[in-house]
Amino acid sequence: MEILFVCSGNTCRSAMAQTLARDWLKRHGVGMRVRVFSAGISAYTGEEATDGAKNAMRTRGLSLDTHRARMLTREIFDAADLVLCMTQGHKQAILQVHPNDKTFTLNEYAGVGGYVDDPFGMSDAVYEQCAGQLEDLVDRAMERACHAL
User: What is the C-alpha to C-alpha distance for residues 125 and 41, in angstroms, rounded to an integer?
Assistant: First the structure.
């Protein structure tokens, strides 16, 4: 199974979600059967994760130091079995170009209302809050996605 996390620039939310999901897979021993990756609908390919995102992951013992942003392409989309977006806007942008039944917001797939606010340009405290929200949502989503494995 291949899971794709999508946000705008692939330097904050989807990058952190990817890192948290990979950690979840490692802790639950299913990493060999699931691949997790991320992209942005308006990303500048090659851009590093933001310092706020790096710091939020570092406090959790994880690293975004080698992360580089990727623009969402048809090839990346086609490789995914499940696409989890940070907002309804991201989901709608994908569905307009690629009508499908594999794209959800992370919140709806996790069974929680709302969406994940963009911390870009905000304080480390806002990034921490976002990372905490993502931890909960990613845990729920990964549990659901990997339940049948």
Answer: 25
Nearest to 71 by CA among 122, 115, 6: 6
148 pLDDT above the threshold of 90: no
Please state which architecture CATH assigns to domain 2-146.
3-Layer(aba) Sandwich (3.40)
pLDDT band at 149 (very low <50, low <70, confident <90, very high): low
Query: In this structure, are residues 34 and 149 in contact, taking their beta carbons and an 8 Å threshold?
Result: yes
Does position 49 have pLDDT exceeding 70, yes or no? yes
Report the C-alpha gap between 117 and 129 in whole angstroms.
10
Catalogue the active-site residues.
7, 13, 118
The full set of domain ranges for the chain reads 2-146
Burial class, 101, CB count within 10 angstroms (exposed 0-12 / middle 13-18 / buried 19+): exposed
